Amino acid sequence: MPAIRAFCAGFTLLFAFFASCASRSGKSFVPAMQGYNDKLHEVHILNKDLLEVSGIVHLGGLRFAAINDEDGELFFTNLENDSTVKYRFKGKGDYEDLAKVGDTYYILESSGDIIELDQSFTGHETYKFNKKNT
User: How many domains does the structure of the chain reveal?
Assistant: First the structure.
């Protein structure tokens, strides 16, 4: 009898999970904003390496710089010509955000450390987060 109860409970949970997935429409939420016409939007499919973007910087026009969440790679994407260039700045990690000041890019790690990239995007300097001063 306990095996039948366990099976029924498991089946019920599995059914509930799939039923909730089926109710998803696949559309993202678009808030009502005055002056925004959601009929004029464009959809761009990004490079699969950008599946988990942690930080993004608009460079003007349809150009963006972005980092993925874990691989230590900086991407430059131009949506006008559908091109993407990738630079590896560091190995595996947990990268949270990207910022650009002048011509210099900074990457925030989950530890609080900040990585400053050199102009070639192949070298970097890391500024350690000092937890003692917080």
Answer: 1
Q: What are the two backbone dihedrals, phi and then psi, of residue 83, each rounded to the nearest 5 degrees? A: -110, 150
Phi/psi class of residue 26: alpha, beta or left (left: φ > 0; alpha: ψ in -120 to 50)? Answer: left
**Cα–Cα dist 99/80, whole Å:** 22
**55 within some domain:** yes
How would you class 2 by CB atoms within 10 Å of its CB: exposed for 0-12, middle for 13-18, buried for 19 or more?
Answer: exposed
Q: Does 11 map to a domain? A: no
Q: Are 88 and 73 within 8 A, CB to CB?
A: yes
Q: What is the mean pLDDT of each run of 10 residues along the chain (134 residues)?
A: 52 48 51 78 79 90 92 92 90 91 93 90 85 66
